[in-house]
């Protein structure tokens, strides 16, 4: 059995508590885009999370176009993506916090130096870097190990497409079977598992009443073990390393 030597972390609501802040920031912009095109829907940060968790803004707009039969010209798409990035980064810089307990686990992994650590996100690179810098995680993830489905690929995409994980493995020189991913969403878990990477699901940031349901969702998407708290991470990783899951 191959030795696990790489751990690939999703960013939003896995390393940092960003989803709520980010969705609040982009609800206004999506509502504006819909109003301009006479689409009779109105989103709040909360309803956006329910409908689009795990997708980047480009992915949300693509879904909106399909769902409501609207058209967004390529130039407008690029303009909106930049506007959303700016609005979200401003919110994150003001109020972002790390996920509870993740700092201790990153410190422990860094001290052991047994694993290559990397971030693999759907979000734009500028936003991911702003997030990890705000909470001091950039010491664990220097620039060359941060990957974005929106920015790092020749053709921008979003999870659940496995392209960003396959790209990260190639750049890092790692094989899927010697890597582990940590993901909090269905789309992220699908992305990692479709790339052949064993995935730890994390449901900590969800409301207590929703955690059991999300555990089922992540397991159905392919997560081999699910944790509710970062303190469970060493045990979850050990299960994979021993070949128990």
Can you put this structure into words, describing what you see?
Keywords: Carbohydrate metabolism, Magnesium, Metal-binding. This is HAD superfamily hydrolase. InterPro entries: Beta-PGM-like, HAD-like_sf, HAD-SF_hydro_IA, HAD_2, HAD_sf, PGP-like_dom2. Its cofactor is Mg(2+). Helix content is 50%, strand content 11%. With 245 residues, it is α/β, with parallel strands linked by helices. The protein folds into 2 domains: 6-17 and 97-241, HAD superfamily/HAD-like (Rossmann fold), CATH 3.40.50; 19-95. Strands 3-2-1-4-5-6 form a 6-stranded parallel sheet, with helices on both faces. The mean pLDDT is 95.
CATH fold field value of the largest domain: Rossmann fold
Q: Tell me the β content.
A: 5-15%
Helix content: 40-55%
Q: What is the C-alpha radius of gyration, as a whole number of Å? A: 17 Å
What is the CATH homologous superfamily assignment of the largest domain? HAD superfamily/HAD-like
Keywords: Carbohydrate metabolism, Magnesium, Metal-binding
Cofactor: Mg(2+)
GO molecular function, one term: metal ion binding
Protein name: HAD superfamily hydrolase
